[in-house]
Amino acid sequence: RIIRPMLDLPRTEILRWLHENGYAWREDASNADEQFLRNRVRHTILPLLEGELNPNLRETLLRTMDILREENVWMEQMAGETSGFAAVDGTKPEVPSTLPLALRRRILRKWLFEQGAAEADFDAVEKILALMAAGNGTTTFELNDKQRVVVEYGIPRFEERDHPLSEPQWMLTREPGTGWRKDHGKGIGILPAEASFNARKVGSSPIEVRGYRSGDRIAPLGMEGSRKLQDILTDQKIPRAQRANIPVVICRGEIIWLPGYRTARGWEVQGDTGKSVHARIEQTPAG
Q1: What pLDDT band is residue 85 in, cutting at 50, 70 and 90?
Q2: Are residues 240 and 261 in the same domain?
Q3: Which of 274, 267, 253, 271 is nearest to 221 (CA)?
Q4: pLDDT of 4
Q5: How many CB atoms lie within 10 A of CB 52?
Q6: Domain end (from 49, 84, 119)
Q7: Which domain holds residue 244?
Q8: CB 207 within 8 A of CB 172
Q9: Are the CB atoms for 263 and 197 separated by under 8 Å?
Q10: Whole-angstrom Cα distance, residue 143 to residue 158?
């Protein structure tokens, strides 16, 4: 913190006190050089404004600075308290649109610097807030050549391009049984999840798991025809950057289950006593 005890004192008063008390001082020659903006303001612009508009301009500016300084402290405190309650996790804050715009700006700017942003000027904050308000799919704002903010359905995520994403790993287990165990997932990509399949249809074929790929399709149970997984994930508002972490379950070359969504038509268990294969999928640590 910088302490400036004589900031409120005019130069003339400081010089008068030095003269009266017999103190010597040194002048910084650069303070008279009007190539510097601060000196042009001090020696030319302020005297002009004082003469033409307000002879008490310096006192007015100092009083305004004091008011703004104290209000800034209060708003920073408010931004810290509000963002603490609104955070989804350490990397994805929520900035409710019901908050005053000034507070939303500060919350977002504070979060950007906490994430390690090298810069976050007014224009950047305004554009990111606009992308968040639109809430349309996935959009990106480039902060600089190494950092960007990806806004996914209104939620911002900070990215460093040099940080590789870890590859997801899943563990799928299966056991024989009877009856149908409905997909008990809590949502696409949220694990663990469980489901059942027709044992006769599965036969001795392996049930495997892999990541989502562009072009994948599934024939969802209870629906006609097939659907692109891309369309399903878009409808479910799964951010594009998270889709590589979405597992799909394969048997005999066909996607038979999108965990957390539905199993495929034609693989359902026949009745409550039909032979089935119960499957469970969960996330395992990478490495």
Answers
A1: very low
A2: yes
A3: 267
A4: 75
A5: 9
A6: 84
A7: 170-283
A8: yes
A9: yes
A10: 10
Query: Do 139 and 179 sit in the same domain of this protein?
Result: no
Give residue-wise pLDDT tens across range 12-36: 888 899 999 999 988 888 888 888 8
Task: Please give the residue that has the higher pLDDT: either 90 or 28.
Answer: 28
DSSP track, 49-95: HHHHT-TTHHHHHHHHHHHHHHHHHHHHHHHHHHHHHHBSSSS-B--
Mean pLDDT of 207-220: 90
Indicate if 146 and 204 belong to the same structural domain. Answer: no
Is there a domain that residue 24 lies in?
no
List, in order, residues 6 or more apart from 131 with CB less than 8 Å away: 139, 141, 151, 156
**165: which DSSP letter?**
P
Side chain identity at residue 207, one-letter code? I
Mean pLDDT of the chain: 85
Average pLDDT over residues 178-182: 77
Is 264 strand, coil or helix?
A: strand
Residue 164: pLDDT above 50?
Answer: no
- Of 84, 99, 122, at which residue does a domain stop? 84
Classify residue 248: in a domain, yes or no: yes
The Cα 154–Cα 136 span in angstroms is 7
pLDDT of residue 86: 46
Residues in Cβ contact with 18 at an 8 Å cutoff, skipping those fewer than 6 apart: 24, 25
Which pair of structure tokens corresponds to residue 52?
A: 């033409």
Checking if the pLDDT of 189 tops 90, the result is no
Please give the angle made by the CA atoms of 92, 113 and 69, to the nearest 5 degrees. 120
Q: Are strands 217-218 and 227-228 parallel, antiparallel or unpaired?
A: antiparallel
Contact 175, 277 (CB under 8 A): yes
Q: Number of folded domains in the chain?
A: 3
pLDDT digits (tens, 9 = 90+) for 37-48: 888 998 899 999
Residues 181, 208: one domain? yes
Q: How far apart are CA 111 and CA 116, in angstroms?
A: 9
